[in-house]
Each structure stands twice: as structure tokens, then as C-alpha cells.
Amino acid sequence: MSLYCKRIVNINVNIVLASALAAVLTAPIIEVLEEHLRSIALVVLSSLVIDAIFDFSIFSLLHWFANKSLQGTRFLRDVLTLQKQRVFLTPLFYGVATGTQTALLVLGRGAGFSVVVAYFLAILVTRCVHTLYGLKCGLFVGE
């Protein structure tokens, strides 16, 4: 496998793992908070904030494990470059996640269940978009 392909796989695996773990960790917290929040909007907003904190932290840690050879500022620059790319996908990711979660909550599904389903769907959509865009534009070349 070429370095280019390994880079694409490495990035996607790290992002999928970070996002999936973030969703799984967010779900029980939201399940507990749901009865105190008393509003679908507050449940969805709380899910977004908690997920974003977990996601950023877990992704940075996984990226460090996968790229220990990058030292100091090189590692920091690499993480920030990848996070910058992810920021451009944030409206799509959280649009899919919050829209799906809201729909599930309106339909009477539980808060924890709605987090997991909505955020996993958002992962699928944004990973496909990012990878296809990156392949078309050469986004991963020279990183």
C-alpha cells in the first residue's frame, strides 16, 4: 500500500474511531441529563457540545499514537491541519447529527439511542464526502 493510501486509511480510521467513541461516550451522559434538560433543543445542543469535546480529544490522542514519529511542532501542525479540514465538515457533520437526533427524539426514541444513531450516520456521510473530495483534489498528498 502506498504512503498516500496509508495516509487516507490512517486519517479515516482515526476519525471514525474518535467520532464513534465520542458518540458512545456521549450517549449515556445525555441519557442521564435528558430528564433535567426538559427540551429537545437542549438535549440536542448538549449532545453536540459533549460530543465535540470528546471527539477532538480522542482524535488528537489517536493521531498521536498513530504518528509518534512526528515530533513537537510537526505533530501539532499535523493535528491542527487535520482539525482545520474537519472544521470545514463540521456544519455537515453536526447538521446531519442534530437533524437526525431531533427527528428521532420527536418520534419518541430515547436520548442515548438518538445520539448513537444520529452521530454514526453523520460519521458515514462526512467520511464519504471528505474522502471523495480528498481523492479528487489530492488533499492528502504531501501531508
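(ticket continues) Second input and output from the same batch:
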Amino acid sequence: MTNTMGEYVAYDHNADYCMGIVGSGNRNFNIQFCLTARRYAERFDVPEIAEYELRGTDRDVSRVYQTMIKRAREYEDEQATAKK
């Protein structure tokens, strides 16, 4: 796992502001593809919202962006519901 990232998210209340995790990796590593992203999602109880391989493609950029927009809307709805 990327220790610096994990420490940053775990610090104080930072995890409360995490809307989701996007992972990247190399599919040659099979089960370990995006493993860190899956572990962070579980550890911080947030969804893993997207994955892409290596540097990604233009199509990945568009797909991940659209997924992030969707997740941001869901997060806003969750926050509004929690305040009621």
C-alpha cells in the first residue's frame, strides 16, 4: 500500500471528506490489479468508483471523469440526507 496516502487519509478527519477511490495498476499482476485502491476503499469505508490500467487512455479519462461526477452527486445527496 502507498503509506503516505494512507497516513494522509487516516489523519484526523480527512477520511470523512473522501468521496471514493480511483485505482490504477497493471493487469499483468492479476489479483493485485488495483489492490491498494480496493484496500483503501475497505479501510476507509468508501466506494471504489473506478479503475484503469497503467496510464489510462483517452476513453478511460472520460469514463473516470463521468464516474467521478456521478459519485459527487451521490455524495451530495448522502450528505443532505444525513443532515435531516
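Agent notes: The first strand starts at residue 21 and ends at 25. The longest helix spans residues 58-83. Closing as not reproducible unless the customer responds.
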